Each structure stands twice: as structure tokens, then as C-alpha cells.
Amino acid sequence: MSVGHYYGMCHRHMGRAVEIRTHDGRIHRGIIHRVSRDRVFLQPLGRPRNLGGFGYGGWGWGFGAGIALGFIASIAVLSFFFW
């Protein structure tokens, strides 16, 4: 089957729940949110798994952002002393 055939099929089923099987055997289930010529964007079915973003576990930015902002500020201030 051609790429145009799959594009048309995905475009016709936009907004519906689908199950997509890839060549390597993986199965993706979700609602088709958007379709481009080379990608299909799915909204996953079920409850969201990542509460609060990538690796934060739902607790916000945490301690690491404070260290990063402090480091950036110290680099900016130290540049005035060694100019």
C-alpha cells in the first residue's frame, strides 16, 4: 500500500479511536489528533501517565531548577569581576 493510501485513511479517521501497528510490531492506541504527510499524532487513550511533565513526578520543578538558576546568576555576576 502506498503512503497516500495511509495518509487518506488516517485523515478520514481523524478524531476517532484507532490502533496502529508498526512494522516492528509495536502497537499504538489513541485518538488521531493531527495528520501530516509523514506523521500521525495520537492522543493516548486512558488516564495520563506523566503527571507534571518529564520525570518530575507531579511535584513541580523541584530543587534542580533552583541550583540551575543560581548557577546561571553566579556566572553572570562573576563575569563582571574578571572582565
TrEMBL record:
Domain of life: Bacteria
Transmembrane segments: 59-82
Keyword terms, alphabetized: Membrane, Transmembrane, Transmembrane helix
Protein name: Uncharacterized protein
